[in-house]
Amino acid sequence: MDFKENILSHFEALKGESKVSTAIDKIRTSAIHQFVNLDVPTTKHEEWKYTNLKNLVNKTYQFPSPSISDTSKYTPFTNQYDEEQANILVFVNGIYVQALSRVISPENELKITNLATSYQGNGGETREVSIEEHFAKYASFEKEVFIALNTALSQDGVFIQVPHNKEVSIPIILHFIADASATDVICHPRNLIVVGKNSSATVIEHFSSTLTPFSTLTNAVTEVYVAQNAYCEHYKIQTEESNASHIGATYAYVERDGRFNDTTVTLTGKIIRNNLNIKINGENCEAYMNGLYAVTGNTHVDNHTAVDHAMHNSQSNQLYKGLLDEKSSGVFNGKIFVRQDAQQTNAYQSNKNILLVPTASVDTKPQLEIWANDVKCSHGCTVGALDEEPLFYLRSRGISHAQARAMLIFAFADDILKRIKYSPVREFTEKIIADRFGMELI
After folding, report:
1. pTM
2. SS3 of 68, please?
3. Gyration radius from the chain CA atoms
4. 315 vs 10, 30, 264, 376, CA distance in Å?
5. CB hemisphere CA count around 418 (13 angstroms)
6. What percentage of the chain reaches a pLDDT higher than 70?
7. What Å distances lie between residue 133 and 159, 259, 343, CA to CA?
8. Is the same domain home to 277 and 395?
C-alpha cells in the first residue's frame, strides 16, 4: 500500500466516526480532495531539493488509538520546565491526555479547549470567536500536501483564545509526545491560537518522543492570529529521538501594531522540516524569527521561513544559526516578500552555520523579493568551521582544547539563547547544548 492509499483508508475510517461541525467537515473534505491532487514532494521539487522524504513515505503508518490507558510512562516528558507555574496540555500521538493536563489561568483571561472538543462545537458558549472563524484561514492547503493532509486528518490539538485586553502572565506549554510502541505511527496535531486586541500570551510547543524500534512521523500545523496591538511569543522546541521525523508548519497572521516573536530550537530527531510563515497585514507590526539547530548523528533539519510584508511601516528580523556535528545535515531557505504597498519596511535576514567536522553539511539560500522602493532590506549567510584564532587564544591562556572548543560553540549559540525570554526554555536549551559539547555552566 503506497503512502496516499494508506492515508485515504484512514480518512474513510475517520469520516465514518466524525462528529465535527458541518463547516469544519466541509473544509476537511476539501482538504482530502486537494491531498489526492497534490504530489508528495521529492528532491525534484525546488522547495524540497535538499530533503529526501523517500524513506518516510515508503512506510505503512498506523493511526494512534484515541484513548491512552497508561499515562505514567509520559510523566518524565512533561517535567522539562518550571511547570508548577504554567498551563499544561499534553498530547500523545496527537491525542489530548486530560490526566496529565491542567489550566491554572482564570477563564476570563485564557480560554483553552482541546481541538476534538472544539470540532464538535462544545465549550464555545463563553468564547468571543468560534473555531470556524479562523480554522484553515492562514495555513492554506491549496499547494501544500502536508498541510492538506493535516487539515483533513487532524483529530486533536488545541484551540487557545486570549480575549481582548488581557495579559496572560502564565505561559501555555503544549507537550506533544510521539510513541510508536507497537508499530510505525503517524499523527497530525493541529493548533489554533487567537490573541485578541491589546492582549499578550506566551506559548511553548515541545515535541519529544519515546525510544522504540518503530518510527514516528509527526505532521503538525499551528495557526496564530495576532489581533491589533497584540503580542504573541511563540516557541517550538524539538527533542525527538533518532527514529522520529517531523514535518511542521507554523502560520502567523499579524494585524496593525501587532507583534509576533517566534523561536525554533531543534536539538534531536531524524528528518525535521520546519516551515514558518508570517503575514504582516498592518502597519507598525513587528515580526521576529529566531532559530537554532544544534544537531549531531544523522539528523537532517530543514528550516524554511517566509515573511510577507503586505502593509507599510513594519519590520521583521530573521536570525537562524546552525551547529552541525558528525554526519548531520542542515538546510536554511529564508524568504522576504515586500509588496508594493509596503513602503518604509525594514526587513533583515541572516543565517550563520558552523560545521564542526568535515562530514557535516549545510545548504543555505536567503532570498529577497521587493516590489516597493522606500525600504531597508538585507540578507546574508555564512558557512565555516570554528575560527582557529580565538581557539588558539583560549588555549594560550591555559584552557584545554576541548573546553576552548566548547566555549566557542556555546558563544556562537548564545546569540539565539539570549533571545529566549522565557527563562525555563532558555535554561533547558542551554543545558542540552552544554552537556553535548562538554561545557560547564556556572
Report:
1. 0.95
2. coil
3. 21
4. 43, 35, 19, 9
5. 6
6. 95
7. 12, 21, 30
8. no
